[in-house]
């Protein structure tokens, strides 16, 4: 039996090999000389998502390689013309995740310390214990190679473990904070470091958040302080002192006039941004077993931004006022072994998600006040959880060297 293989197919196999091994020049030369086009994109899902979100910087180089019929090209360009820049797909209803979508694996001795989605929903960024900051395509679960610096394997990085990252509201910049007290600000499209704050804190930086206008950066640290830094000047503008242990998290109120901090001293504090005065100190309810509990994080509640979600190291999570009254509480009912390590809230505030020291994700419904779903998410201790800004997609990361993406 003889098998006939067309010459074009052999060339396509060689082209595929060149592409997969990043032999770009050989790929181009062979394609031009033989007049044979591979006519594929790396990931159809990513390509479609880029079209839907109007990312022409990523689409055009790929379209140039494709032998598309003229009417298809016209459809593609008209699609964008009439929609302006097409809005990213948005999920209408908040729904809790049920299914594992992708698993991102880090190196053997490496794990993510933090992960965040960009406000425009384009990127997922992780920061690791090995100092690397990586940008992921959450649709394919792979590194974003359309960012040239990542394709060239020149990553954004620190010398020490990177404990926190956050995006500016326009999704153009990210800030990263490391174990040695340094903060760096980067341009995500180029990987360029725009600003270094060498002595932002005397100990590790535990959280970061940009001000609404992107001109300032609020940081917290193991050094018991929260600070506001000016990005233009690189100078320390404000310091908030009063906590007696690690400050684990801080956020601005919706109007930007106050900040709210969460600390291992078991308290939440509300501060005046202008004067740095502490306006309020309160403790969320203690654990069922007695004693006090470290406060992991605070989150503005989307349904009412005068309320905050407070996650402390107990098996309950609370919606509270800025005066410290409990509006609503959600509990797993576990007395031992199920304390929450981290939490996030869905975009419309319908769901509150907690990850526990028992490696489970708890999905609480705001409407019913009940635990509606429980998922085992990792094989080792879970470090954190973060939610996509407008899709029913959650990322969890843990000491088992993985980051997992969960969809509804």
Task: Explain what you see.
The chain has 408 residues and is α+β, with helices and mostly antiparallel strands. The longest helix has 14 residues, at 7-20. Helices cover 15% and strands 40% of the residues. Strand 2 and strand 3 form a beta hairpin. The protein has 2 domains: 7-86, no CATH class; 99-407, Methylamine Dehydrogenase, Chain H (7 Propeller). Helix 1 (7-20) runs antiparallel to helix 2 (24-34). Keywords: mRNA processing, mRNA splicing, Nucleus, Repeat, WD repeat. Residues 6-36 form the TPL/SMU1 LisH-like dimerisation domain.
Q: How do the strands and helices of this protein lay out in sequence?
A:
Blueprint: H1 7-20, H2 24-34, H3 44-52, H4 56-65, H5 70-83, E1 99-105, E2 112-117, E3 124-128, E4 132-137, E5 142-143, H6 148-151, E6 156-157, E7 162-167, E8 173-178, E9 183-187, E10 192-197, E11 205-210, E12 216-221, E13 225-230, E14 236-241, E15 247-252, E16 258-263, E17 268-272, E18 278-282, E19 295-300, E20 307-312, E21 316-321, E22 326-331, E23 340-345, E24 351-356, E25 360-365, E26 371-376, E27 382-387, E28 393-398, E29 402-407
């Amino acid at each position: 039996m003889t098998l006939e293989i067309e010459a074009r197919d052999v060339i396509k196999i060689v082209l595929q090999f060149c592409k997969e091994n990043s032999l770009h020049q050989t790929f181009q030369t062979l394609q031009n000389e033989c007049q044979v086009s591979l006519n594929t994109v790396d990931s159809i899902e990513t390509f479609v998502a880029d079209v839907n979100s109007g990312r022409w910087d990523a689409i055009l180089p790929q379209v140039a390689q494709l032998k598309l019929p003229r009417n298809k090209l016209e459809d593609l360009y008209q699609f964008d013309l009439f929609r302006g820049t097409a809005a990213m797909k948005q999920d209408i209803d908040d729904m809790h995740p049920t299914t594992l979508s992708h698993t991102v694996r880090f190196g053997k001795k490496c794990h993510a310390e933090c992960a965040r989605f960009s406000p425009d929903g384009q990127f997922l960024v992780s920061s690791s214990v090995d100092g690397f900051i990586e940008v992921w395509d959450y649709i394919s679960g792979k590194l974003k190679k359309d960012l040239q610096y990542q394709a060239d394997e020149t990553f954004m990085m620190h010398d020490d473990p990177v404990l926190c990252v956050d995006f500016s509201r326009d999704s153009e910049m990210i800030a990263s904070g490391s174990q040695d007290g340094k903060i760096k600000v980067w341009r995500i499209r180029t990987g360029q470091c725009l600003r270094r704050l060498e002595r932002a804190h005397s100990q590790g930086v535990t959280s970061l958040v940009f001000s609404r206008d992107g001109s300032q950066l609020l940081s917290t640290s193991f050094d018991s302080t929260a600070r506001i830094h000016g990005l233009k000047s690189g100078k320390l503008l404000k310091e908030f002192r009063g906590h007696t242990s690690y400050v684990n998290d801080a956020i601005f109120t919706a109007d930007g006039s106050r900040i709210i901090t969460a600390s291992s001293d078991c308290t939440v504090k509300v501060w005046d941004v202008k004067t740095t005065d502490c306006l309020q100190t309160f403790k969320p309810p203690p654990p069922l077993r007695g004693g006090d509990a470290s406060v992991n994080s605070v989150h503005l509640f989307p349904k009412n931004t005068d309320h905050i979600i407070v996650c402390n190291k107990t098996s309950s999570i609370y919606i509270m006022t800025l005066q410290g009254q409990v509006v609503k509480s959600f509990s797993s009912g576990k007395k031992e072994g199920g304390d929450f390590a981290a939490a996030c809230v869905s975009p419309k505030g319908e769901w509150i998600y907690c990850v526990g020291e028992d490696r489970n994700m708890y999905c609480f419904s705001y409407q019913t006040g009940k635990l509606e779903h429980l998922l085992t998410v990792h094989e080792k201790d879970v470090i954190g959880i973060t939610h996509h800004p407008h899709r029913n997609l959650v990322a969890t990361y843990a000491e088992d060297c993985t980051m997992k993406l969960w969809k509804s």
